[in-house]
Structures are given as structure tokens and as C-alpha cells.
Specification:
The complex is a heterodimer of chains A (about 600) and B (about 525). Chain A has about 600 residues and is mainly alpha-helical. Helices cover about 70% and strands about 5% of the residues of chain A. In chain B, β2 and β3 form a beta hairpin. Classes of the chains: A mainly alpha (about 600), B mainly alpha (about 525). The interface between A and B is large, with 60 and 60 residues.
């Protein structure tokens, strides 16, 4: 029967109409177009020639970067504690692998597209090698010409690349029908990266026994001192990927909820416990924190199991008010900060417990969530409030690329709730709240970020009681989140305005309260609609973190533009500003570009931002 | 009669609850602000640096590396130099970024594969690198040029060195202001000619070449002006001298009060009318809260401006309010303003309004170093160059995205309809696609301009003395951090409010009138 024929949907095959026709349509469609083509080809060749010449000129001190990679990444973090950095990255890698494996949809990709990609990459490299200049001018005044690229080397490279192009052409044509899992392909690509840090050798600076720089600089693998940890991390990634896939096949839905929560918790755990070395004693935890945890777990148990019994149900309202009053009173008392927080959490638990814990099972899971949450919170606060044992010359243990991440993550994470609240305030029907929120948003947005950073670094201390002082990094995080919240509020407002009035009316019609209407009907739709602008705001915040270099925090850019070009001792990289700035530019570019591409793909797949 | 009455207790009435909640919220906010500022005042008093505006009047003893004055005689003047420097980059940056961005936006839609790929590559590169990195990069580029040496001394047409870029420039003569006004007039003349020719075209149906005529009128008018026609503008100066004399006859403070009252009255009437118009039945809800907020802020700023500008020293209101004796100099009144006009636009001035001069590298004073002469040609300093190029390129890639999406958002049927009417591609673009695309492009374009204005503040990283950099130098010297921050905030708010008002005005004007 014709009905039973299984027709698979597939995109229409695009016929390649031949080189001639492609050229005629895309490059030489008219006289003007032809002229434009020749002019731009000439300009591009000139541009790339000078860029390549710049990179391979003997004037360049690329060792300034290879020697200082550690400075770039973690600044002056002491070497004896590097294991903490590796555990940090390992944690993220493990989670990444789990998430990747768990969410893997087992997409297949034909080798044809892989072959095409490889061919594009190798052909571009081939062209670059072909046009690379043989000699460059050093010392612009004298005009000395130096040979930098021997003809033999060029021919050798061209031959190798031509071979690779042929291989990829073979993959493209002969193995086109073969299919591979996209995940394995990606694992393979990352694996290639790991192999390359073992194989690719770059010039570095080393010193002999009398601390004199050895000339000429020897070649060492790209990640000479870190290749072992990176390989181990790669293996961890692969293993966790398969674990994630196994868990997915077991259909563990609860794991689905654990993953985002652990992503949210990881940075907190990292900055309060792992990356720092909190100065705590075990006795503090056993004598102070453990009783608190146990006590509150017990209270939570009672609340969850007995508050929704019929006898107590009618007094629930008074429990809620009473616990709120207790929380406020405790908050104003000079007690442990942990307790202040816990009483507020208890108030929330009392308010929600009867609604959520309506069956035996849900009561049990709520109790587990409660105990785990307060345990983690107490431990986090213990780690965050105690001094760090890591001594760093300078002020803060956060520096280099690590600082960039800390600023970007906490800037966004803290600003998110505030941004949403400001947006709700701005669209509220209550005039005073609306005007105040509008004023806050507009005032924060009207001034450039750098003035806020100055505000944080110079002026914030004036507004705080005497004796209260924050670390520089904390102040930068505070102003970053204020700034980001105002921008986020505008994005969220856009989402709120896109929701039709009928939604509000429908929510009112079913008798939802304001809070329920906002949290169950409005916000989920509004936030979904504005995910693309929020993502682009995250990217721009990531770029904006480089501004802290102006107020003197040791971020990636500050190290590249100020610290390394002024290193006059030892390796002596005085004045290597061009190389370092270029490195920073490429480094930032890789991150922002790949993040933008990745998020664009995911948005497209999930159909976000469309309604 | 409806005698039905709800017996709700007032504390359960939702109206009462709403207002009570808001008022409590307001009180909390006020209390927070009061606490913060009270704390700040206590802390500042403890550090022996009480908050004051005094530094605006005293000589700060700092040097500003470039600007209309390099040794400011008051803190206020130092900040003004910073503002002027910031505006220099902003205005020229907006111009060039728009030009470049439009070009790139069109290139990204080009049918030519290589042009499209190259532009996309450029855009993707520039927009994914932080602006500050780019500014440092351009600084490094210009610093990699050779230093100014003795051999470079003498005149040049264009000269690039580690000190900056020197190029020829028009130096204003004494008649430059006269010619400037004449030049501005030429735009309205050209427009008038264009309108007349178009009217004739529509009346008689023959090609009257309006564009050609307009350009011709523009050129003829300016050429006539260059060789002496500008003297006609001197009439304004002549009138101004009489106005100035008239003002001198009047008692000062009464006049200023009259002005302020008149200005406030007209501002009030304007705002009231605007609100009435936009709240009317057919235009309901056009005036949003943001607009009201903007109007309030703008009115406040205008008020401050009026008070600041037109009240002279002595018993000035500002003085009374702030308790300082040195806030504004005496030469800020209305008569001085008209005197200034008379001074700039005097018909007795003669000679070429602008003269061409080439840059020259000279020996700097008694030292043996070489520098560019500040009197001839124009020197683009390293800081200016780095900030300018960085900001322009960074903004232009975002503008290119705006232009591209704007053009793409015009429905395809529109251009097909135009083509089927037999329009040429150029005419189609000009008459059908661009007007609709502009409408879509305007709000995001305004946002990009605002970003550009704010991004010029990164000049501080390459020692370009714009307002943030000058302000920082100033508070390092005087310790008045909070006052400087308030000045920053007021200045940037004024800029962004002005820009957004202009954009909103055009946006409203260009909006398609819907049913």
C-alpha cells in the first residue's frame, strides 16, 4: 500500500551548478561587480600579507605570551595551591561532560559536511601560506629587509596542505554516505586539541643555572607544564560524557533537575571553598554548624510533616506571620549571619510547605531538598566569611582570566533577580513604584560603565559605615551587577510588553493572585521571549569586564597591557605591547565568538525568541 | 438611585492597601538614601574633606594635555574642557560611524560573494573583541611609528609619528564666524531651490533637474560668500550690539527674573499642551511614563541652566543655594552674550574666512626634542586617534547590523511592486525601500549613538582628556569625588536625554499613521 511507504523528510538537495555559473552569478554578475571583485581580492591579499608578515616578523617577542601564560590565567596565584585551580576546572569539566552526555540527542552527521568543513579550513590555510610574504621590513627608518619565510618551507607546507585537502575531498566524495555521531566527532575535535598541546612546539624562555636567559629560545610544547592535567581533564570529560549518556538511557528525570542546580552552585562552591582556602577549623563546623544544620533539619521535618495536618491547617496563617516576625526580629539581633538567613528560609518553608508537601512522597522529597539546601548554604557561608589562607602578593587572589570569569558570572547571576524586579516595578500599575524604578534604571543606564567602576573603587566606601570594607573585587562585582541589572530590566521589560493583555485577563479570570499571575503566567512567557537579547547582554557584559583594567584590577587585559610590557627583570619583555594586546584580542574573540555561535544554534533549535 | 455600598473595612480596601504600600516603600527608599548620604557626609567630615562645590571656582593647578585651554583656571573650566573633548569625539564619531556602518550594512547585502564574506568577517571580528582592547590596539599601532626626530623638522603635508598624526587644516580668520553663519544658511537656500524646482516639475511635468539646481545654488551661494558675501551676516552683529546696549540700560536682576518667569511659563504651557494633546481621545497613551520622566528631568536641567547661565555673580541664586562665593564668573550674563555675538559677527571684518595651513615639526622651546607646532595644521594626538578609531569601528559594525536588518525587514513585495512599476534600482532604493527601512532603523540607531557617546569615556585608558579623565584628575587633586560623580551623571544624562529626545521626535514624526 502506498500509505505505508515511509517517506523521510529531508531538505531539497541543492544542485551545484558548476564553477562557471557560480563565478558568473556571485563574482562577475556585472562590470561593476567584476571590478569590485578584483579590487577586494587585491585589498584582501595585501591585508593578509601584512598581517602574516607582522606575526612572523623576527621583531615580535611572542615568548612574552608563552612565558607569561600562567600570569594571564591566574595572575599570582601561588603554585603550591594549583591543585585547587585544577579541581575547579575539573569540576566544571565533569559537569560539562555530564550535561553534554545527558542532553545528547545522538544526532548523526554525514561525513560529507565534515569533509566540506575540513576542506574549507585546509584551503584557507593553503591560500594563507601561498600569499605569505617571503621577507619583511624591520626597523621602519632604516628599511632593513629580513627573510622570514624560506621558499622550501613554503613548498613543503603547501604540499602537506594539498595532501590534506585531497584527503578531505576523498572523505567528502567517497565516504559521503557514511554517518557518524556528532558527539563522537566533537570529542574527536577536542581530542585533537589535546594532542596538539603535546605536539605543537612554541618558543619559550628558559634560564640557565646562573639565571641568564638562554639564547636562542628553545622550543617546548604549547602547554609544557600543564599538558598532563589537561589530558587528565580531557579523559574526565569523556568519562563523564558516557556517564551522562548512561544516566539518560536510564531515564532518570530527577537528574534533569539536579543538573541546572549544580551548574548554579558550582561557581559558589568554587569561589568560597575550592579556589580560596578558607581558614576554618573542623571544630567550628562540628560545634557550630552541625548543630544548626541538624536543628533546622528537625524543625523542617516537623513543619513539613505536621503543618498540613487538619488540626493545624486553620492556624497556618498565624504560623506564617509569626515566623516572619521572628525572622525580622532575629535579623535585627546581633547573631550569626547564618541564623539570620535560616530564619527567613524557615518563613518561606512554612509558607509553601502545606501547598507542596501534600502527599507522603512529596513531603519526603521536600525534606531532602530542605536539608541539603541548608547544609550547602551553611557551608558556603562558612567558606565565604572566613579569611583565605592563600597569600598572594598584591591584594586579591582573583586575577587574570579567573577574575574575568568571576566578574562576568557573578555580575549576571546577582543582577538577574534585581533586573527582573526592576522590570516588574517599571511596568507596575503603582505610580510611585513605577517612577522610582524608572528613575533608577534611567540613571544607571545614562552613565557609562567606567564611571560606575570609579564609583565602586573610589566612592562606595564613603556610603558605608566606618569599618565596613570590601575587597576591590567585591566592589567591582557590586557595581557590575547594578549596571547589568538596569540593562537586564530593559530587556525583560521588552518581554513583558510582548505579552498580550489576554494573558493577564485570563490569569485574573481563573482567580490567580498577583504573585501567581506573575510567576506562573507572565514571567515564563516573557523570559522565554527575551532569551536572545539577554544572551547578547551576557556577551557584552563579558566584554565589558575588561574595563576593570582601567581601575587597576589585575584582569586579563591589565596584565596584557600594563604588567607584561613593563616586565624589565628576568625575561625582560619591556615594550612588548603589540603582541600582548593582540593575544588579548584573540583570546576574548575566541570566547565571545564561540559563545555567540553556540547560543545562536541552541536558540534556533529550541525556537527561542519566536512566538 | 444606587444606594448599594460595600461594607469593606478600609484596611482591606485594595486602593488603600496599594497606596499605603507605596508610601511605605517611598519612605523606606527615602530613609535608605538619607542614611547613605548621612553616612557619606559623616565619613567625609571625618576625613577632613567635607563635600563642597568650591573646587569648581578655584584654580586646580592641573594641566590638560589637549583642549581649548591647556591650563584651566578653574575646576569648572577643566570640566568644560573635558566635556568639549568628549563632544568632539562624539560628534565626529557619530558622523563617521554612520557613514561606515551604512556602507558595511549595504556591503553585507551585496550580491558579490567576496565583498559580502569580507565585510561579514570584519564585522564578526570587531564586534567580538572588547572595545578597550581595540583602543589599546590602535594606541599600540600609532606608537609603533618612528619617533619625531630632528630630521623631521620642517613643513609636511601629512606626517605620522609616535606623537600622532599631523595633517593640513583650515585655520579660522577673523571673518570665520560670519562665513560659518553664511554656510549654514546655504543649506536652507539649497533646500528652498530644490522645493521650487520640484514644484515646477509637478506643475509643468518637465524634468527641471531639482538636485542639480540645489547643488548649484549651494555652490554659488558659498563661493559668493567666500569672496565677501559673508559681510551681509554682519547685520546680525549690528542688531546684537543694539540689543546689548538696550540690556545695559535695564536693571539686571529684574530682567533675569522676567526671563526666568517667561521661560518657565512657556515651558509649562508647552508641556501642558503636549500632555493634553497626547492624552486626547485619538492619541491616548502616546506619552508614556518615560516621556514624563524625561520631561521632568529636562525641565529641571533647563531650570538649572537658566539659573546658572543668566544669574550673574554677587547675589546669585546659585550662590545662595550652595553657599559659595566663587561659583560662576561675572561674564555670563545676557548682555555679555549679545556682546559676544557682536564681537564674532562684525561686518567690518574682512579677508579670507579660512586659511590653509600645513603642519610643521619644530624644536620644542629650548630643549632638543622635536614636536609639532600647535599653531599650524592639525595634530591628532595618540589618545584622540586611538579612542576615535576604536569607537568608530566598534560602533559602525553594530550600525551595519542595524542597517542590514532594517533593509531586510522591508517586505520583499515592496521592492517587487516598485520593480513592476518600472522604477530603476536606485530610484527604488531611494523612494521605496530606504524610507521604510529608515523608520525601522531609527530607534536602534539612536541606541547605538548613545552607546558611542558613552564609550568615548574609554579615552581615559589612553590618556585622552575627556570628561571622565579630567574629572578623575580633578578629584585626585581636590578630593571631591562625589561632586565630580554628580557632574558626570548630570553631563551624561543631559547628553543621553538630548539624543533620545531627538530620536523620539523623529521617530514620532516618521511613524506610519495607522488607523
Amino acid at each position: 500500500m502506498a500509505d505505508n511507504v515511509n517517506i523521510q523528510e529531508s531538505p531539497p538537495e541543492v544542485q551545484f551548478a558548476g564553477v562557471n555559473r557560480w563565478l558568473r552569478e556571485n563574482l562577475f554578475s556585472s562590470t561593476g561587480s567584476a571590478i569590485l571583485t578584483f579590487v577586494s581580492i587585491g585589498a584582501l591579499i595585501g591585508l593578509f600579507r601584512s598581517i602574516i608578515g607582522f606575526f612572523i616578523s623576527p621583531e615580535r617577542e611572542w615568548t612574552a605570551i608563552t612565558y607569561n601564560l600562567r600570569l594571564y590565567m591566574v595572575q599570582a596565584y601561588p603554585e603550591s595551591d594549583f591543585i585547587r585551580v585544577w579541581i575547579t576546572i575539573g569540576l566544571v569539566m565533569g559537569l560539562l561532560g555530564l550535561t553534554w552526555g545527558f542532553n545528547s540527542v545522538n544526532e548523526k552527521s554525514s561525513l560529507k559536511s565534515t569533509g566540506t568543513t575540513l576542506m574549507k579550513v585546509f584551503s584557507s590555510l593553503f591560500l594563507l601560506v601561498l600569499i605569505a610574504p617571503t621577507s619583511v621590513v624591520i626597523d621602519k627608518v632604516e628599511g632593513t629587509v629580513v627573510d622570514v619565510f624560506q621558499q622550501e618551507l613554503r613548498i613543503y607546507l603547501l604540499a602537506v596542505l594539498a595532501g590534506l585537502i585531497l584527503v578531505s575531498y576523498f572523505i567528502r566524495t567517497k565516504l559521503a554516505s557514511q554517518e557518524v555521531s556528532k558527539d563522537y566527532l566533537n570529542i574527536g575535535y577536542v581530542g585533537l586539541l589535546v594532542v596538539s598541546i603535546w605536539l605543537i612546539k612554541v618558543p619559550t624562555v628558559t634560564f640557565d643555572s646562573s639565571n641568564v636567559r638562554i639564547e636562542p629560545d628553545p622550543l617546548l610544547p604549547l602547554a609544557a607544564s600543564t599538558k598532563n592535567p589537561w589530558t587528565a581533564l580531557y579523559l574526565l570529560l569523556v568519562v563523564t560524557f558516557f556517564i551522562g549518556r548512561y544516566l539518560n538511557s536510564k531515564n532518570l528525570t530527577s537528574f534533569k533537575r539536579i543538573l541546572p542546580v549544580s551548574w548554579l552552585l558550582t561557581p559558589l562552591v568554587v569561589v568560597t571553598w575550592i579556589y580560596r582556602k578558607p581558614d576554618f577549623t573542623l571544630s567550628q563546623i562540628t560545634t557550630l554548624d552541625l548543630p544548626v544544620i541538624l536543628g533546622f533539619s528537625a524543625i523542617g521535618y516537623l513543619v513539613i510533616n505536621y503543618l498540613n495536618s487538619e488540626k493545624l491547617m486553620q492556624y497556618q496563617r498565624y504560623f506564617v506571620y509569626g515566623s516572619l516576625i521572628i525572622a525580622v526580629v532575629v535579623f535585627s539581633l546581633p547573631v550569626l549571619r547564618q541564623l539570620k538567613l535560616l530564619f527567613f528560609l524557615l518563613w518561606i518553608l512554612i509558607s509553601v510547605a502545606p501547598t507542596i508537601a501534600n502527599s507522603k512522597e512529596s513531603a519526603r522529597s521536600l525534606f531532602i531538598v530542605w536539608s541539603v539546601a541548608i547544609t550547602i548554604l551553611i557551608l558556603l557561608m562558612r567558606g565565604g566569611t572566613s579569611e583565605t589562607l592563600i597569600v598572594v602578593p598584591g591584594s586579591s587572589i582573583y586575577g587574570g582570566f579567573a577574575l574575568t570569569w568571576v566578574l562576568a558570572f557573578f555580575g549576571i547571576a546577582i543582577s538577574f533577580p534585581f533586573g527582573v524586579m526592576l522590570a516588574l516595578g517599571r511596568t507596575s500599575s503603582l505610580p510611585i513604584i513605577r517612577i522610582i524604578c524608572t528613575a533608577i534604571i534611567e540613571l544607571v543606564r545614562s552613565v557609562p560603565f567606567i564611571t560606575w567602576l570609579f564609583f565602586g573603587s573610589v566612592m562606595l566606601t564613603f556610603f558605608l559605615p566606618a569599618g565596613v570594607e570590601f575587597d576591590e573585587v567585591v566592589r567591582a562585582v557590586v557595581v557590575t551587577s547594578i549596571f547589568s541589572a538596569a540593562y537586564l530590566a530593559e530587556n525583560v521589560r521588552g518581554g513583558l510588553q510582548s505579552i498580550s493583555k489576554g494573558q493577564f485577563e485570563a490569569a485574573d479570570a481563573v482567580g490567580l493572585s498577583t504573585l501567581q499571575r506573575i510567576s506562573l503566567i507572565v514571567m515564563p512567557q516573557a523570559l522565554r521571549a527575551v532569551i536572545p537579547p539577554i544572551v547578547s547582554q551576557v556577551i557584552s557584559l563579558f566584554k565589558d569586564t575588561s574595563l576593570v583594567a582601567i581601575v587597576g584590577l589585575f584582569d586579563l587585559l591589565y596584565i596584557g597591557s600594563k604588567v607584561i610590557p613593563n616586565q624589565s627583570q628576568g625575561a625582560n619583555f619591556l615594550g612588548t605591547i603589540q603582541e600582548n594586546i593582540l593575544f588579548c584580542a584573540i583570546f576574548y574573540w575566541i570566547f565571545t565568538y564561540s559563545f555567540a555561535r553556540r547560543s545562536m544554534k541552541i536558540e534556533k533549535r529550541l525556537g527561542l525568541g519566536e512566538r | 438611585m444606587n444606594k448599594f455600598k460595600l461594607n469593606t473595612a478600609f484596611w482591606r480596601d485594595v486602593r488603600f492597601l496599594k497606596w499605603a504600600g507605596q508610601i511605605i516603600f517611598l519612605l523606606i527608599i527615602f530613609n535608605l538614601i538619607r542614611n547613605f548620604f548621612g553616612q557619606a557626609i559623616t565619613n567625609l567630615n571625618a576625613t577632613n574633606l567635607p563635600f563642597s562645590w568650591r573646587f569648581l571656582g578655584s584654580t586646580p593647578g592641573i594641566q590638560v594635555s589637549e583642549g581649548f585651554v591647556t591650563y584651566p583656571e578653574s575646576g569648572l573650566q577643566a570640566l568644560q574642557i573635558g566635556m568639549a573633548n568628549m563632544l568632539r569625539i562624539t560628534v565626529s564619531g557619530i558622523f563617521f560611524a554612520t557613514f561606515l556602518g551604512t556602507l558595511m550594512g549595504i556591503a553585507r547585502l551585496s550580491k558579490n560573494w567576496i565583498v559580502e564574506r569580507a565585510t561579514t568577517g570584519f564585522v564578526e571580528t570587531v564586534r567580538n573583541i572588547p572595545l578597550l582592547v581595540q583602543i589599546f590596539f590602535w594606541q599600540a599601532v600609532i606608537l609603533s611609528f618612528p619617533r619625531l626626530e630632528e630630521v623631521d623638522r620642517g613643513q609636511h603635508v601629512v606626517h605620522i609619528s609616535a606623537k600622532g598624526i599631523a595633517f593640513p587644516w583650515l585655520d579660522p580668520g577673523e571673518a570665520s564666524w560670519l562665513f560659518g553663519v553664511w554656510f549654514l544658511l546655504s543649506f536652507s537656500i539649497a533646500r528652498r531651490v530644490f522645493k521650487l524646482r520640484v514644484a515646477k516639475l509637478e506643475r509643468e511635468g518637465v524634468d527641471t533637474r531639482p538636485v542639480l539646481f540645489a547643488i548649484g545654488a549651494f555652490i554659488i551661494w558659498n563661493v559668493a560668500g567666500w569672496f565677501g558675501g559673508y559681510k551681509a551676516v554682519g547685520v546680525i552683529g549690528f542688531i546684537a550690539s543694539y540689543v546689548s546696549m538696550l540690556f545695559d540700560l535695564l536693571p539686571r536682576i529684574g530682567l533675569q527674573l522676567t526671563f526666568i518667569i517667561a521661560a518657565s511659563f512657556y515651558a509649562y504651557r508647552y508641556i501642558a499642551r503636549e500632555i493634553k494633546r497626547t492624552r486626547s481621545a485619538e492619541n491616548r497613551g502616546i506619552l508614556t511614563d518615560d516621556d514624563i520622566f524625561r520631561i521632568i528631568i529636562a525641565a529641571l536641567l533647563v531650570l538649572i541652566l537658566i539659573v546658572g547661565l543668566f544669574l550673574p555673580l554677587g547675589n546669585s541664586l546659585m550662590d545662595f543655594l550652595l553657599g559659595n562665593e566663587l561659583f560662576f564668573k561675572a561674564d555670563w550674563g545676557i548682555p555679555q552674550f549679545f556682546d559676544g555675538i557682536q564681537n564674532k559677527l562684525n561686518w567690518e571684518y574682512s579677508g579670507s574666512p579660512f586659511t590653509f595651513s600645513y603642519p610643521e615639526a619644530i624644536q620644542a622651546g629650548s630643549s632638543k626634542f622635536t614636536r609639532y607646532s600647535p599653531d599650524v595644521g592639525k595634530i591628532m594626538s595618540v589618545g584622540y586617534f586611538a579612542t576615535w578609531v576604536g569607537v568608530i569601528l566598534y560602533t559602525s559594525v553594530f550600525i551595519s547590523e542595524v542597517v542590514r536588518s532594517g533593509i531586510m525587514a522591508v517586505a520583499k513585495g515592496q521592492s517587487e511592486a516598485g520593480l513592476s512599476l518600472g522604477l530603476r534600482r536606485r530610484t527604488l532604493l531611494r523612494l521605496i525601500v530606504l524610507p521604510q527601512a529608515l523608520r525601522i532603523m531609527l530607534p536602534p540607531m539612536g541606541n547605538q549613538y548613545l552607546n558611542l557617546a558613552k564609550n568615548t569615556s574609554l579615552g581615559i585608558a589612553v590618556a585622552y582628556p575627556e570628561i571622565v579623565a579630567v574629572g578623575q584628575t580633578l578629584y585626585n587633586q581636590e578630593g571631591q569625588t562625589i561632586a565630580v560623580f554628580i557632574v558626570w551623571m548630570a553631563f551624561y544624562s543631559t547628553i543621553s536625554l538630548t539624543l533620545s529626545t531627538i530620536v523620539n521626535y523623529y521617530n514620532r514624526k516618521m511613524k506610519i499613521v495607522e488607523r
